[in-house]
Amino acid sequence: MLEPLTLTGIDGSNPLGYLAALGTLRLLSQQHPAVRMHWTRDTAAWRPVLSGIDLASDALIAALLAAPAFPAIESAPLGKNITVEPAKFSEFVQKAEASLHPSGNRIPADFAAAFGSEVCVDKDKNRIEYTLLCFITGSGHQDFLETARTLLKKVEAPHLQETLFGPWLRRDDKLSLRWDPSDASEYALRWDNPGPLGVKSVWGAGRLAIEALPLFPTQPITPKYVATTGFCEDRYPEQFTWPLWTTPVSCDTVRSLVALAELRQAAPNRQQLTPLGIAEVFRSPRVRIGQGANFKVSFRPSKAV
After folding, report:
1. C-alpha 88: how far from its chain's center?
2. Domains of the chain: total
């Protein structure tokens, strides 16, 4: 009998931890279609549990390092960021579509759908409308795709060990995607100025979290507006909402769960969600911190809703 493996380092109430768990599931599913994930609550947090595969912790980490890693990012003609002009993004989309035939490799296409849409355009800036999960766009020398590429090169087994099995020490220099609420270091709430200290992050978590993006595709709504799966965008600030389920499910089922319309309600209805195996729902605001052009985007700590 295959023993389930609990990822004790990941806290399901942390958006970065949640995305890292889903990225882990998606990577493993490419080579182990039988893998499943559910969540269990211990004394400290909700933890993801893997089942359906015969992998101890060391073998799991080796499998993740060997898995095909976002070729859409590594070989994309997008440069350092996804905030590009429509023609450039259209070229990227066409190459992603071409990769579907004859190999049937849908990974580049899944990332293209996650990044944004060339049919939704910010005409003032002549760039596509892009996913709300992109928090860094080039200001302050922080680039979304370049950060992802660098994480791919730098992350090794010890980084994944810390991410999956803890504790998160947040001792890695820079390379933050700003999905960890602890990245929101505000001067007004601290004894000293956090700016000169630099950003400390968990590289392994970022590396795995980027792999979750294909589970949160964007959808063109109007010529000026693209929606992002998982976000309640009819309220300000935008709210990222995610479910935790207690029944082992596949990656394809997770793709459906995170897109449930019920999650976008102001107060998700447990009578609707419980029959689907969903035991808890968390929500984290996506906020801008700073004034004028000198601002950063971050998640606030989540709340159970």
Report:
1. 24
2. 1
Q: Which residues pair with 283 in a beta bridge?
A: 241, 303
Does residue 99 belong to any structural domain of this protein? no
Tokens 């580049």 correspond to what residue?
Answer: 108
Task: Using alpha carbons, select from 211, 254, 178 the residue that is nearest to residue 71.
Answer: 211
pLDDT at site 195: 54
Residue 187 lies inside a defined structural domain of this protein: yes
Q: Is residue 91 part of a domain?
A: no
Tokens of 184: 């929101």
Give the pLDDT score at 198.
62
Q: Is the full-model pTM beyond 0.90?
A: yes
Range of the domain at 202: 5-69+139-215+228-304
The ranges of the chain with pLDDT < 50 are 191
Rounded to a whole number of angstroms, the CA Rg of the chain reads: 19
Question: What pLDDT sits at residue 102?
Answer: 76
CA dist., res. 265 & res. 261, Å (int)? 7
User: Which regions of 7-161 does DSSP assign to beta strands (E)?
Assistant: 36-41, 46-51, 116-122, 127-130
